[in-house]
């Protein structure tokens, strides 16, 4: 894949926004550490706490406040180079996962969507491949070979809440990045 580069990229670090709520404060920094450890690109990382909590995690709507940058949830570990993910950026578009999910998004647009119910207002392009959002519960006990991002989506198995993750590979990654 050819990465999108340009004058704007040469001057500024890659902006990364991580959605987080109070209940996830114990893992604040996990996603950031994994990004910094796995990329050489300069990044500017901001943790976004919602004014009003929404959805099952509390931070479901903060992604819709972003107009330019990468959006990630706080319960993720980035194993790939964030510069590669940034390469999916498209002018005037909200680029999300191939399946239409928005937990991982590369955003370069003005939009009027402010919450999940208004997603239909987004100038959405579904182009980010699945290795950029590998969900823990779909792995069973397999090793996450080829994964560029691990997402701890099973709220009943998140190791920072419920103890050891049943997948030892996912548990080891969490220990590596939790800090």
What does this protein look like?
The protein has 179 residues and is α/β, with parallel strands linked by helices. The protein is built from five helices and nine strands; from the N terminus they run H-E-H-E-E-E-H-E-E-E-E-E-H-H. It has helices at 7-11, 30-37, 82-86, 159-162, 168-177, and strands spanning 14-19, 43-48, 68-73, 76-78, 93-97, 104-108, 124-128, 134-135, 149-151. It has a six-stranded mixed β-sheet with strand order 2-1-3-6-5-7.
Q: In DSSP terms, counting alpha (H) and pi (I) runs of 4 or more, how many helices?
A: 5
The main sheet orders its strands as 2-1-3-6-5-7
Strand proportion, as a percent range, falls in: 15-25%
Secondary structure: helix percent: 10-25%
Present the secondary structure layout.
Elements: H1 7-11, E1 14-19, H2 30-37, E2 43-48, E3 68-73, E4 76-78, H3 82-86, E5 93-97, E6 104-108, E7 124-128, E8 134-135, E9 149-151, H4 159-162, H5 168-177
Parallel strand pairs: 1-2, 1-3, 5-7, 8-9
Antiparallel strand pairs: 3-6, 4-9, 5-6
């Amino acid at each position: 894949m050819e990465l999108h580069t340009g004058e704007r990229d040469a001057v500024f670090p890659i902006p990364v926004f991580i959605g987080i709520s109070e209940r996830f404060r114990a893992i604040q920094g996990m996603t950031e550490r994994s990004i910094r450890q796995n990329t050489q690109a300069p990044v500017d990382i901001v943790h976004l706490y919602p004014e009003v909590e929404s959805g099952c995690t509390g931070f479901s709507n903060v992604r819709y406040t972003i107009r330019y940058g990468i959006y990630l949830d706080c319960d993720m570990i980035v194993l790939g180079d964030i510069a590669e993910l940034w390469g999916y950026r498209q002018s005037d578009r909200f680029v999300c996962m191939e399946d239409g999910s928005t937990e991982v998004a590369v955003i370069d647009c003005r939009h009027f969507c402010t919450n999940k119910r208004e997603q239909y207002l987004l100038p959405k392009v579904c182009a980010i491949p699945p290795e950029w959002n590998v969900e823990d519960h779909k792995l069973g006990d397999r090793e996450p070979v080829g994964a560029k991002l691990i997402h701890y989506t099973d709220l009943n198995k998140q190791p920072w809440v419920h103890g050891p993750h049943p997948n030892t590979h996912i548990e080891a990654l969490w220990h590596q990045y939790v800090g």
